[in-house]
Write a structure and sequence with these properties.
The protein is of the alpha+beta class and 161 residues long. The chain is built from two helices and ten strands. Helix content is 18%, strand content 34%. The strands form two sheets. The chain has a five-stranded mixed sheet, with no helix packed on it. Strands 2-5-4-6-7 form a five-stranded mixed sheet, covered by helices on one side.
């Protein structure tokens, strides 16, 4: 068993099997795991917001769906991943507040999921599994050895997608 590489909020990283990669506390944030099966290289980005173009002070590309996924792709290419054969698994994008609202500012989780899907589609990276929405936070772990994306949530059974 390798080591577990941690990715913070609005951060990203890449790992090779036998290492695994994790991010904690995905509420409305979305964890996007990209994976190259042939080299067993995986990358994970913890996306906080959908769109970098709506924010003036954005020194951190990993924070946004549009720029974070592109940056992760570049890092994976530098690590030797075959970026034309990547697949994606995504988790998070919860609605962390109990009230239903159509106010876009409060629908950050939904908007993050939509933005992630749009960007992956543009980049022609298929999403092969997802666990998104609902109203609880998630911690995720991706294992490049097997391609398993393990999702843990308080009071819920552990899921592998």
């Amino acid at each position: 068993m390798g080591e577990m590489i941690k990715v913070g909020m609005a951060d990203l990283n890449v790992c090779h099997a036998p290492d695994a990669i994790t991010t904690l506390g995905l509420g409305s944030c979305v964890g996007v795991a990209l994976y190259d099966k042939s080299t067993k290289i995986a990358g994970l980005v913890h996306v906080m917001l959908p769109d970098s173009t709506s924010v003036r002070q954005n020194q951190n590309p990993a924070k946004f769906a549009d720029t974070g996924i592109v940056l992760l792709l570049q890092k994976m290419k530098q690590s030797g991943a075959n970026t034309s054969a990547l697949t994606a698994k995504i988790a998070g994008g919860a609605q962390m507040f109990a009230f239903k609202s159509n106010n876009d500012m409060l629908r950050v989780g939904d908007r993050n999921v939509e933005a992630v899907k749009k960007k992956l589609n543009e980049l022609r990276i298929p999403i092969i599994a997802e666990d998104t929405g609902l109203n609880y936070g998630r911690t995720v772990e991706f294992f490049p050895e097997t391609g398993d994306f393990v999702i843990k949530a308080v009071g819920k059974p552990v899921q592998t997608i």
